[in-house]
Write a structure and sequence with these properties.
The complex is a heterodimer of chains A (335) and B (80).
Chain A: H1 2-9, H2 11-45, H3 58-64, H4 66-101, E1 105-110, E2 115-118, H5 120-126, H6 130-133, H7 138-143, H8 153-160, E3 164-171, E4 174-184, E5 190-199, H9 201-222, E6 227-231, E7 237-240, H10 242-248, H11 269-280, E8 288-293, E9 298-311, E10 314-324, E11 329-330
Antiparallel strand pairs in A: 1-2, 1-5, 3-4, 4-5, 6-7, 6-10, 8-9, 9-10, 9-11
Helix pairs in contact in A: 1-2, 2-4
Chain B: E1 2-7, H1 15-26, H2 28-33, E2 36-42, H3 47-57, E3 60-66, E4 71-77
Parallel strand pairs in B: 1-2
Antiparallel strand pairs in B: 2-4, 3-4
The chains are: A alpha+beta (335), B alpha+beta (80).
């Protein structure tokens, strides 16, 4: 080969051409190595294996242009990511608007109990400043302690990995309904906890006030001289006062097993049942005279008014208040 | 809608991935518009992971199904 080249180009030119050829081969080798190296770096980013030389020889490598192919794929990946980011930003703004508009306090905690997100209502409910929540755990910010307080919703959710609902959680004299929901990853591990607080202080106070008032009325009726009874639509007694029990001779424990017709004299039952049914249908009855029938089989003539209360159109209870009209009459035994 | 099938049986990953990406790049407009669906037929199991994953990252929908003699990887427009 050398001798042929020497004859064709002369000895000097021949050596020069061979040197140039060696140099060009080295340059091409380095270029191909560079292409393989960069292609493999890009393939690694896509999560696949490097190209083996036996898969793609040097000529095919240049012809295929893998860097160009993968780079174009990356352009599309970045465009797609950009589009996803825009969608996420829009979704984030929607969530922020929802958080701001609801009347309940919402907080999102990470798995270490650190506060990640909270809405304005949360600050208002607990009288907090945004700086009070920054970098703090829920128990530091709300409960003022470094470890789980008793009845901690977050702790229960992390233990059970299920939603938790507290109907009355008290903090600084205020009452809250607390709903906590775990957010799980694809392996089922809890990664975040969403806590929602509803201030129910006013409702609790109203309920307590109603209970107090109910107790007051019960005390008044319990101690009234008149006979007072409250009867359910099925005829069972919801309430009778002391005068009622004394007049008819039943103890408080016996009231649960009684029905209204057990205390009506047999000859009055049909008429009373008619009145009772009319009341349940919404009729207004004038003052009525009834003969009650005591445990000791004594008749007791009473006069009074009976009304009926309704809820959502359905009868809830009849309320009767009576006064004894004259002395009891003993009935012949067996009547 | 046109379905273009590309038989890549005999190739292994990452050659299959590069071949698939080249086809997707060439027809990206048609695929995104919903006019074209690409179907790659491969007998290389790794490709049933790398090709759909990369295509989904690029914003396409990818579906893999197993057939008697090959896997079919279907690349189409992502549903919005």
């Amino acid at each position: 080969m050398t001798s042929i080249m020497n004859r064709l180009f002369g000895e000097y030119d021949s050596e020069r051409l061979m040197e140039e050829n060696r140099s060009l081969r080295e340059i091409q080798f380095r270029q191909i190595e560079y292409i393989r190296k960069k292609t493999n770096q890009l393939l690694l980013l896509l999560g696949t294996l490097p190209i083996r030389p036996e898969e793609l020889d040097d000529d095919s490598l240049i012809e295929t242009d893998p860097i160009g192919v993968v780079a174009e794929a990356f352009v599309q990946i970045l465009e797609h990511e950009k589009s996803l980011n825009e969608q996420l930003r829009a979704a984030h703004e929607e969530i922020q608007a929802i958080l701001a508009s609801v009347g309940i306090g919402i907080m999102v905690l990470n798995r270490d109990m650190g506060i990640q997100i909270h809405n304005q209502r949360m600050l208002e409910m607990f009288g907090l400043d945004p700086a009070d929540l920054s970098g703090k755990t829920c128990c530091q910010a709300l409960c003022g302690c470094d470890s789980f307080p008793p009845d901690c919703t977050f702790e229960r959710i992390m233990e059970t990995r299920r939603p938790v609902h507290l109907t009355d959680w008290v903090r600084n004299g205020k009452h809250f309904e607390v709903s906590g929901v775990p957010v799980k990853n694809r392996f089922g591990d809890v990664t975040q906890v969403v806590l929602a607080y509803t201030d129910i202080t006013r409702r609790i106070e109203t309920e307590q006030s109603l209970r107090d008032r109910e107790q007051m009325y019960l005390d008044v009726f319990e101690n009234a001289a008149d006979i007072v009874q409250c009867v359910a639509p099925d005829g069972s007694f919801l309430f009778v006062n002391r005068a009622w029990r004394e007049a008819l001779g039943y103890s408080a424990d016996e009231i649960g097993g009684l029905k209204i017709w057990n205390i009506i004299a047999p000859e009055n039952r049909a008429q009373c049942l008619e009145h009772f049914n009319a009341l349940l249908k919404g009729a207004q009855l004038p003052a009525m005279e009834i003969v009650f029938f005591s445990k000791e089989c004594k008749e007791l003539m009473v006069k009074g008014h009976v009304t009926c209360s309704f809820a959502n159109g359905k009868p809830m209870a009849s309320f009767g208040m009576f006064r004894t009209m004259h002395a009891e009459n003993s009935l012949p035994s067996g009547k | 809608m046109e379905t273009i099938s590309i038989d890549m049986r005999g190739q292994i990953c990452p050659s299959t991935l590069i071949s698939a990406l080249r086809e997707i790049n060439v027809r990206k407009g048609e695929i995104r518009s919903g006019a074209t669906t690409l179907v790659f037929m491969t007998d290389n199991r790794d490709s049933t992971v790398t090709i759909p994953e990369t295509a989904e990252k690029m914003g396409y929908a990818a579906k893999v199904s197993k057939h008697a003699d090959c896997y079919r990887i279907e690349i189409s427009a992502a549903k919005t």
